[in-house]
Design a protein that fits this description.
The chain has 261 residues and is an alpha/beta fold. It has ten helices and nine strands. A hairpin with a 2-residue loop joins β8 and β9.
């Protein structure tokens, strides 16, 4: 179970005007603004849930995922993931979670995908038998086949994302964080990824937290929505109750307007 209580996170952002003079001035004296990425957020996610964590750009979605995965430390508040504090128990924590960032890669660019998988096997200390079983199952389910023998830089975006998802699941994590996993994918690839994630949740009871702007992903994969805006949780509820019989994308757009985000 994931429990988040009163988490806050701020960043200092350097600001300056355009032009050479302003650049020289900033070299000696920089001006900073403090941006509240997360402002006292709280929520609970139970084992086996599929949750859409949505909001506009800059709302705090990726910051939340990075805190839950142990990459960032919050300024204040409490966070427990299956009894672990992510940023304090990182070694124990990372072997139980999988993370896919749509705009970041965990695969090595110039070597075949299979080499990246072998390295991840060693990083996570996966036993040989478990690794082969997991690799073969994921290869079949995600239709990787010859992709395993191909350097990552030669893959299309859709092919790479299928390999990224497989890489995040080699160690059979209990929780899967997906940050824009279908960004830039064609319709066929999106459907394949959605169906795989739904099957993963159904068969393995893997908890899935999905952040995306694609409401079709949300409808296909999740049952619950948490809406965040300006660093605050604005809405938390069942997707069917929020959208009713209407179009989810239109409903969410109206929510953005009503909350002025």
């Amino acid at each position: 179970m994931i429990t988040v209580r009163n988490i806050c996170k701020s960043y200092r952002v350097a600001r300056r005007n355009a032009g050479f003079g302003a650049a020289v001035k900033s070299f000696f004296r920089r001006e900073y603004d403090t941006v509240k990425a997360l402002d006292n957020i709280s929520f609970t996610i139970h084992d086996g849930e599929t949750v859409g964590y949505i909001g506009p750009n800059g709302a705090g979605k990726s910051t939340t995922v990075k805190i839950l995965s142990g990459i960032l430390t919050p300024d204040s508040g409490e966070c427990l993931v299956d009894g672990r504090i992510p940023w304090k128990n990182r070694i124990d924590h990372v072997v139980r979670i999988g993370v896919v960032f749509g705009q970041r890669s965990q695969l090595w660019w110039d070597v075949p995908v299979s080499d990246s998988f072998e390295l991840l096997k060693d990083i996570y200390s996966i036993p040989d038998a478990d690794y082969k079983r997991s690799r073969d199952e994921l290869t079949c389910l995600l239709d990787l086949g010859e992709l395993l023998r191909t350097p990552v830089r030669q893959l299309s975006l859709g092919q790479r994302m299928r390999c990224e998802i497989a890489a995040s699941l080699l160690h059979s994590p209990e929780i899967l964080f997906l940050d824009e996993p279908t960004i830039g994918l064609d319709a066929v690839s999106k459907i394949a990824v959605r169906e795989f994630i739904v099957r993963l949740n159904r068969e393995r009871r893997t908890t899935v937290i999905l952040t995306t702007h694609d409401m079709h992903d949300i409808e296909a994969i999740t049952r619950r929505i948490i809406l965040i805006g300006k660093g605050r949780i604005l809405l938390d509820g069942d997707i069917s109750e929020i959208s009713g019989e209407g179009d989810l994308e239109h409903t969410v757009a109206q929510l953005y307007k009503s909350y002025e985000i």
